Amino acid sequence: MRLAGKVALVTGAGAGIGQEIAKRFAREGAKVVVVDRDLVAGTQTMQEIIAAGGASIFVQADLAQAEAVRAMFVAAKDAFKRLDILCNIAGTVAQGTVEDTTEEEWEAQIGTTLTSVYLGCKYGVPLLREGGGGVIINMASVAGIMGIKNRAVYSAAKGGVIALTKAVALDYASENIRVNCLSPATVETPSLRDRINSSDDPIAARKAFEVRQPIGRLGTVEDIAAAALYLASDEATFITGTNLVIDGGMSL
């Protein structure tokens, strides 16, 4: 029970990595605020946590909107009185070169992937401060380190998350707020499986994703949740401003 007595808020917790982090944190003793824009998916995650004996609420939110982000922290405080761990996990993957990407698509990707992290930090820090400090974990990507072909705006957004994480870590280190980010490579999530299965040759598509990692396999949501748990726990109290790369060697 490495998070016993803690309250965690996890965005993008309706599916994939965010969902696994929320459920892993709950198993480790945290009360979990599940946040997602999908009402059905987010409610399902909350119900699974409660059915397993955990404590959880669900908040539906568009994380690119400041009012929605402020409201989710109000809901967290109303339900659990405090916040110890903030995981800004929500994001989307947009394909395209800079020429292919419209200005509207650029704004949408930056909003869901980078602005959402900025807003989460901006309005989450005061609640963490009230409790004497805490932990922020942001979701970056190897795309923010090395760039990915045909992922121009996504790479830019994730690079922004890495830089923002380091800046916020410096700004709040003296207030006992640790801020780190995670940079996975290709992870097997429901959305990735949908992309693979909808391709002309699913077997070849899967193989193309697998060989990008020198280890020779896709990452799992459990791989990423384990790393998030470590950073959230008291085992990582001397770690801040770090980009923890979980990529099977892809960025080497």
Supply the CATH class.
Answer: Alpha Beta
What is the average per-residue confidence, as pLDDT, rounded to a whole number?
96
Q: In one word, what is the shape?
A: globular
Q: Provide the succession of SSEs.
A: EHEHEHEHEHHEHHHE
CATH fold-level topology: Rossmann fold
Count all strands and give the number.
7
Summarize the structure.
This protein is α/β, with parallel strands linked by helices and 252 residues long. The protein is built from nine helices and seven strands. The protein has a single domain (7-186, 220-246), classed as NAD(P)-binding Rossmann-like Domain (Rossmann fold, 3-Layer(aba) Sandwich), CATH 3.40.50.
Note down, in words, how this protein is organized.
This protein is 48% helix and 15% strand. With 252 residues, it is α/β, with parallel strands linked by helices. It has a single domain, classed as 3-Layer(aba) Sandwich (Rossmann fold), CATH 3.40.50.720. Strands 3-2-1-4-5-6-7 form a seven-stranded parallel beta sheet, with helices on both faces. Helix 1 packs across helix 9 (221-232) and helix 4 (103-130) runs parallel beside helix 6. The longest helix is centred in the middle third of the chain and has 28 residues, at 103-130. The two termini are 34 Å apart. The model has no long low-confidence stretch (mean pLDDT 96).
